[in-house]
Design goal:
The chain has 7 helices and 3 strands, in the order ααβααββααα. It is mainly alpha-helical. A 3-stranded antiparallel β-sheet has the order 1-3-2. It comes from Amycolatopsis rhabdoformis. This is Helix-turn-helix domain-containing protein.
């Protein structure tokens, strides 16, 4: 299974999201964060991601006779590189987009189901804007967004920080 096929699955993508904060988590901790997926399903998908090298074992400890593993995300492996994206078919792009949207809906539904969820206080946003851009203006916008986002993608968990899911989506309408 190639990285594109491996990452384009709603459960595996949610595992990647959960571990993207830089903090290792056990499968039990992942199950608490992704509570709408059965433990057996979660274990299977964590195993696939670990086998592919997208997750690595950060720590092992014995718990009641079993070995409990904490997993860490290998950010360098949890991406679809430019060559894979360039060689993807239109059906591949359709599947990637559908998976991203399915995952986004599942993550938002899980957020709304948490005690104390408050979209206004949490500054939740889901606006869409239609903008007219030349190819050069589009390239400039993408560069500007990267300059703003890339330093924040390196943020580690810390007191006062909460993990947020940011999903920029950009495509021509005509």
């Amino acid at each position: 299974m190639d990285d594109l096929e491996l990452l384009v699955h709603p459960v595996r993508l949610r595992v990647v999201h959960a571990l993207s904060g830089g903090r290792p988590l056990t499968t039990t901790e992942l199950a608490a964060r992704i509570h709408d997926v059965s433990k057996a399903t979660l274990y299977r998908h964590v195993g696939l991601l670990a086998e592919a090298g997208i997750l690595e074992v950060a720590e092992e400890q014995r718990v009641r006779g079993a070995v409990e593993r904490s997993y860490r995300l290998r950010r360098d492996r949890a991406v679809v590189d430019a060559d894979a994206a360039a060689s993807a078919t239109l059906d591949d792009h359709r599947k990637v987009f559908a998976t991203a949207m399915t995952t986004l809906i599942a993550e938002f539904t899980a957020y709304l189901g948490r005690p104390g969820a408050n979209p206004v206080e949490d500054l939740v946003g889901y606006r869409q804007h239609s903008v007219w851009l030349s190819h050069e203006e589009l390239a400039e916008l993408i560069t500007d967004l990267r300059e703003v986002l890339l330093p924040r993608l390196r943020n580690e968990p810390a007191p006062g920080r909460r993990q947020h899911l940011l999903s920029p989506i950009l495509f021509p309408l005509e």
